[in-house]
Amino acid sequence: MKALSLYAVNDFRLVDLPVPEPKGEEILLKVGACGICGSDIPRVYKLGTRVNPVVLGHEFAGEVVAVGDKKDKDLVGRKAAVFPLIPCKKCDSCEIGNYNQCQNYGYLGSRNNGGFAQYCLIPSRWHLVLANDDANLEHLAITEPACVAQHAIRKGRVTAGQTVVVLGAGPIGILIARWAKLFGASQVVLTEINEEKEAFAKERGLTVINSLKEDAKQIIDHLTNGRGADVVIEGTGSSGGINDALQIVRYGGNVVWMGNPSNDTTIKLQNHSTLLRKELNMYGIWNSAYSNTPINEWKYTVEMIQNGKLKVDDLITHTAGIQDMLKLFDQIHDHEITICKAMYSAKLDKE
C-alpha cells in the first residue's frame, strides 16, 4: 500500500508499506478519506513527532475490510469514522471515562500509524463509530474536528439565547458556529484576520469581524447592548486572540481555551486584571469526549452529519489522491493556496 510517513522534521515521504494484517481485536480499515489538520503542518515542517517513522493523519474514515477475530466479522463492509486516541485505560482519567485526559495515550496519526495511507490498522472495534452504508466518507472524515468543535460548545456551557463569539474562522471555528446555532445561541459571531477566511465564512452565512480592521470589542458591545459575549471560544492560540477574548466576554462569562499555541503567548497587564475583576469561568479543552456518559460526542456528531443537521460538505476545498498529497502539504505550508479543509480522498488514487 501507499502511505505518507514522517521520518523526521521536513522528511515526509510517500512510501510503499505492506498492508497490515489484523490480529486479535485489531480491525483493518480501507481508508476512504483523511483530512489535513492544522496541527499536521507544524508537525511535518517544524515540530516532528515522538515516534519515527510514523504515518500521519488522524481525521479519517473508511470501510472495514478485515478483522483479527471472527467475532467481529459483522463489521466487514461497514463504513466508520475513527476515534484516533488510544487510551491506556489504566490511569485515573481513563477509569472515569475521560479518555481525552489520559496520561499515557497513543494516537493514530502521530504516535501510531494513521490515516494518510490506503489502509490503517485500528486497535479494536471500540475506536469505530459505525455509519450508514451510504455514508460519504469525505464528509465522515470531518467527524474528528466536528467533535472538537462540539466539545468546545459543551465545555463553554452554551445554552439557548446566548451570544457566542468564536475567535478564528477556520474549519473548526465554522463548525463551532454551526454547533452554537444548533445548541440555541441567539447570536454567533466569528473574528478573523485573514481576508480569504473571512470571505469564506461570510459566504456561508456567518457574521465575521475582521479584527485587524475593526474594533471587535466595540462591535460585540453594540450587538449585546454593552453586556459582552456570554461565551467566547478562543481558537487561534495567539496572544492577540487571548487578549481579545478577555475583553469581549461579559462579566461572569465563560471563556474556552481551544487554540494550540505555536509561539509563546502573553496576557497584557490590564487584561490580567480584567479576568480577575470579571470573575471569569475559564475552561481548557483537549480533543473531545468519547465516553457514553453524559453523551458520546462522536456518536452524536456522526448522527448529525448523516441526517444533514450539521453541514460539513461545503468546508472541503481541496482533495488529492495519495500520490499528490506531498504537493498539497507543501502548497499549504508555503501559502500557495488558502484552504478550509483539505484532505486525502481515496477516490482520486491512481491505479
UniProtKB/TrEMBL annotation:
Keyword Oxidoreductase: yes
Domain Alcohol dehydrogenase-like C-terminal: 171-305
InterPro entries: ADH-like_C (IPR013149), ADH-like_N (IPR013154), GroES-like_sf (IPR011032), NAD(P)-bd_dom_sf (IPR036291), Zn_alcohol_dh (IPR050129)
GO MF annotations in UniProt: oxidoreductase activity
Domain Alcohol dehydrogenase-like N-terminal: 25-127
Signal peptide: none
Keyword Transit peptide: no
Record-linked Gene3D superfamilies: Medium-chain alcohol dehydrogenases, catalytic domain (3.90.180.10), NAD(P)-binding Rossmann-like Domain (3.40.50.720)
Keywords in alphabetical order: Oxidoreductase
PANTHER family cross-referenced by the UniProt entry: L-THREONINE 3-DEHYDROGENASE
Name by which UniProt lists this protein: Galactitol-1-phosphate 5-dehydrogenase
Organism encoding this protein: Absicoccus porci
